[in-house]
Amino acid sequence: MMSKIYAFLFALALGLGTTVTQAAVLDFEDLASPGSGMVALESYSADGFVITSNTGLADSFGYMQTGASLYTGSTGLFNAYFDTLTVLVREDGGAFNLLSLDLAHLFAETGAPGLVIFTGNLVGGGTVDQQVWVTGGATAQTFALGFENVLSVSWAHGDSVFQFDNIELTDASPIPVPEPAPLLLLGLGLLSLLAGRRRKAV
Q1: 199 shares a domain with 183
Q2: Is residue 12 located within the same domain as residue 23?
Q3: Which of these, 147, 144, 155, lies nearest to 100 by C-alpha position?
Q4: Which pLDDT score is estimated for 79?
Q5: Of 83, 145, 102, which Cα lies nearest the Cα of 120?
Q6: Which of 72, 159, 182, 183 has a CA 20 to 30 Å removed from the CA of 55?
Q7: Are residues 26 and 114 in the same domain?
Q8: Domain of residue 189, residue span
Q9: Do 2 and 32 fall within a single domain?
């Protein structure tokens, strides 16, 4: 019994005193469906995040079914309208970090290199921009992004249509875990109490 208590306290000391960062990857695989066509939708939400368009239309976004000729092997979302904004926010309005995402031309045969401009709205005001160039072809490219402590990120794709996928995100406000010292003191107090009872029992 005593050895089990010591093992528990040791594990407690190793595991606590840190912070936990919520992480999510929006891969859109929950949308994957059989068929050979395109499916339209107004918005998308998963893992506490929401993606909308500034058009607000019922067919703002689309994705290809797994049997479609434009399906790339991974379900990706695309904004169906030229010169519009795709907007990413947290459902609860909190801050987040956007680390990376994949982009690929929807129409590989006609897709010339294109510019995608990202704009992040920072906590406390102000914006930060980042531009990426997507080369031709349907092969997805992974772009590292540096948006930290933002309330939203929007991007515009001009007159090209790009599928986006595997959006990597983290919470900008890590969840604090209590320091181990008070818990260890409590555990040691319980240990002393148990030891005293054992001596009385003898």
Answers
A1: yes
A2: no
A3: 144
A4: 95
A5: 145
A6: 72
A7: yes
A8: 1-18+177-202
A9: no
Give the CA distances from residue 158 to residues 6, 47, 162, 174, in Å, rounded to whole numbers and listed in that order: 62, 28, 10, 35
Instruction: Please give the distance of CA 1 from its chain centroid, rounded to a whole number.
Output: 43
Q: What is the pLDDT of residue 185?
A: 46
Question: For 37-41, which contacts have Cβ atoms below 8 Å and span 24 or more sequence positions?
Answer: 37/64, 37/65, 37/68, 38/62, 38/63, 38/64, 38/65, 38/68, 38/70, 39/63, 39/64, 39/65, 40/80
Kindly state the percentage of the chain with pLDDT values over 70.
73
> Closest by alpha carbon to 46, among 60, 59, 28?
28
| Same domain (yes/no): 38, 74 | yes
**119-130 pLDDT per residue, tens:** 999 999 999 999
pLDDT above 70 (res 172): yes
pTM, rounded to two decimals: 0.77
